[in-house]
Design a protein that fits this description.
Elements: E1 3-7, H1 14-25, E2 29-30, H2 33-41, H3 47-77, E3 80-82, E4 85-87, E5 101-104, H4 107-118, H5 123-131, E6 136-140, H6 157-172, E7 178-181, H7 185-201
Parallel strand pairs: 1-5, 1-6, 2-5, 6-7
Antiparallel strand pairs: 3-4
Helix pairs in contact: 1-7, 3-4, 4-5, 4-6
Length: 202
């Protein structure tokens, strides 16, 4: 199972891209746990809350990832519904067994969040960065218009650019392949699909 993480500053189309890619490849994606947590508990978060959010994100990723693995197993051993198709006890031919798994947010996002707001980072987050393995990062640029909602904090371009370059610096200094995704929503999706296809064929 190939794991693709979509990262970047807020309001850069990460969730939209995850959903579009999951639909395109007829697979599942892992949403951002922080949104669920903050909607439930409020936006006046503490440094300790970010540790709770990080652990919740890891748990959610494990849960949704297990569902994708089961999809692959069922495709070989029994009937399974994949998108709008159904197989009966045979291997899928239209959809390959290496279903990609798309993840909105990982521990790099939590690291940037911790350090940007609190100038500190939980050891748990740093340990998870070392332990967790991914196959591709898609880094979303800040060239989309900022869209206000009740959880977003940084509408000004200065902070958006600062955060983007934090992420870009992380990408440059780690070993997993990564691709910058920019332009309008259609262009972003095209770039992402091209990158994922290349990964699946490698």
């Amino acid at each position: 199972m190939k794991k693709i993480v979509i990262i970047g500053p807020e309001s850069t189309g990460k969730s939209t891209l995850c959903e579009q890619l999951a639909e395109h490849y007829k697979t599942s994606w892992c949403p951002e746990y922080a949104r669920e947590y903050l909607l439930k508990n409020g936006t006046d978060y503490s440094f300790g809350d970010l540790l709770t959010i990080a652990k919740g994100q890891v748990a959610l990723e494990e849960k949704t990832g297990a569902a994708v693995k089961k999809m692959e197993e069922d495709a070989v051993t029994g009937g399974v519904k994949v998108g709008n198709r159904f197989t009966e006890g045979r291997r899928l031919t239209a959809a390959p067994l290496d279903h990609p798994f798309f993840i909105d947010t990982d521990m790099y996002v939590m690291k940037v969040w911790c350090e940007f707001v609190f100038d500190n980072c939980h050891r748990y987050i740093l340990d998870q960065i070392v332990e967790r393995n991914y196959d591709l990062y898609l880094l979303c640029d800040v060239d989309l218009p900022w869209v206000k909602d009740e959880l977003r904090e940084y509408p000004d371009l200065e902070n958006r650019l600062k955060l983007y370059y934090f992420y870009k610096d992380i990408m440059v200094n780690q070993t997993v392949p990564w691709v910058s995704v920019s332009g309008d929503y259609e262009t972003r999706l095209h770039t992402a699909i091209k990158s994922v296809d290349k990964l699946l064929k490698s």
